[in-house]
Write a structure and sequence with these properties.
By secondary structure, this protein is an all-alpha fold. Helix content is 83%, strand content 0%. It has three helices and no strands. It has helices at 3-25, 29-47, 57-104. α1 runs antiparallel to α2 (29-47) and α1 (3-25) packs parallel to α3. The mean pLDDT is 88.
Length: 108
């Protein structure tokens, strides 16, 4: 990959993580997952980059800014999804408890 391709990939990932925040804000979990898949594809492309790319100072600063934005977006996504994940976990645990009680008392 060239310097431009590397920075283009980071820019695309930053745009996708921004969209992921928007999806999580409106509880669009399917949309969030689809966007996450796209980010994963960019990460794989960057990891598959066999050539060592040397960025100049300005490019490194641009990359750093994009990474900071993605980390901030990730924090916002976690803040939005954790309550939903806790609720889902509670539902799963309650269902498991109900099954065990039903099995124990022969109601199955």
């Amino acid at each position: 990959m060239t310097n431009v391709e590397v920075l283009t990939a980071y820019t695309a990932m930053a745009a996708l993580t921004r969209k992921m925040v928007a999806a999580a804000t409106v509880a669009d979990w399917d949309g969030l997952e689809a966007l996450e898949t796209q980010v994963t594809a960019h990460v794989a492309a960057l990891r598959g980059n066999e050539e060592a790319v040397t960025l100049d100072a300005g490019e490194r600063q641009q990359k750093l800014g994009l990474i900071k934005q993605m980390l901030d977006d990730d924090r916002q996504i976690r803040d939005l999804t954790m309550p939903w994940m806790a609720q889902l976990s509670k539902l799963i645990n309650n269902t498991g408890t109900e099954r065990r009680l039903a099995a124990a008392y022969g109601a199955v």
